């Protein structure tokens, strides 16, 4: 069953998620060497206590857009399949290697607006537990209402996400 057809399942926070991220991070850093300037744990699994779909999101950061082609090539050596930017400039998406646990890997230059967005959202939720709690309720409700429609699930969260990003930019 492809990811697009799998039901939306949001589960309670799993304290093993940071460790899963660290394993992925170490593997990617080993392959990329000096091309990577960082690997960030983003998405809901990066916020302690926040319910999430059990899929780790990581942003691999390179110094500039000029480093992207070489990084794409090295990630392919690990079995990652490059999917392009999927309509989001400044963020290259990859399908996880066959035989590994499902996760989302994105490659971003350090100055990518999408990277900044991911970090701003994550950091705001980490710093504001009341906002994270409201987001948790929204995610659980949206998953229940849109179990078989990932696009509708995402759309149900988008207004809240934009509101959080505006608040994070203002602070």
UniProtKB/TrEMBL annotation:
Gene3D superfamilies: Beta Polymerase, domain 2 (3.30.460.10)
UniProt superkingdom: Bacteria
Entry's transmembrane regions: none
Keyword Transferase: yes
GO terms, molecular function: transferase activity
Name listed for the protein in its UniProt record: GrpB-like predicted nucleotidyltransferase (UPF0157 family)
Pfam families noted in UniProt: GrpB
UniProt keyword terms in alphabetical order: Transferase
Keyword Hydrolase recorded: no
InterPro entries: GrpB/CoaE (IPR007344), NT_sf (IPR043519)
Source organism per UniProt: Kitasatospora viridis
